[in-house]
């Protein structure tokens, strides 16, 4: 049976995560980056957290319905880790092994920011759960979309109105503005602490301009994309 040649380091599949507060445009830009990669003949998939696999999606709906809220941020961090472990083992790692790039709409930095930096869960617990769930699969690049949370709220509200929904949102969207400001600072401090992995991009620009800025960051980090060495 024909064996696939191992991919060279220059052309290996990459794992890119998108992070930031609510409504900053993560989902919009993950889709656009996927299309841009595919236009360059790169095999890529997009996924999201919490979720990405059937078991992790079950945990997602449990958490986002607010059913774990009374358990506190520590137990929620454990639930996120359980979901992430399945996501990594069943979707992220197998795709990367097959040479398929993986784009995730949120990943471990969201746990650091939500449960750790704003939820007050002990650093050691966060770090221990992270190393268990990631099993060596840290992202190669993390795009942190940054903007004023009030302006991002407006986007979420407009989206809800467009969809004919009242703005009830999930429970995170009901939290106070101050809390969201703290969350924003949390993501920025993660970026400061991980300058080799994280790129902060202002999300307060049009979808097209933001898409171009993200593509520039991605190709700067992975110049093999423009050399076509993957093809
Ligand atoms: N650059 C942009 N300028 C203006 N509106 C935008 C921009 N990007 C996205 N939007 C709109 O803002 C809303 C939120 O975008 P999106 O769902 O991509 O954000 P998100 O970060 O994934 O949000 P959430 O955290 O709720 O998942 C959508 O209605 C989207 O169409
Ligand atoms: Mg989204």
Automatic annotation (TrEMBL):
Q: Name one GO cellular component term.
A: cytosol
Q: Which residues form the Thymidylate kinase-like domain?
A: 18-214
InterPro entries on file: P-loop_NTPase, Thymidylate_kin-like_dom, Thymidylate_kin_CS, Thymidylate_kinase
Q: What is its EC number?
A: 2.7.4.9
The broad enzyme category this protein falls into is: transferase
Molecular function (Gene Ontology), one example: dTMP kinase activity
HAMAP family with a match to the protein in the record: Thymidylate_kinase
Task: Provide the protein name.
Answer: Thymidylate kinase
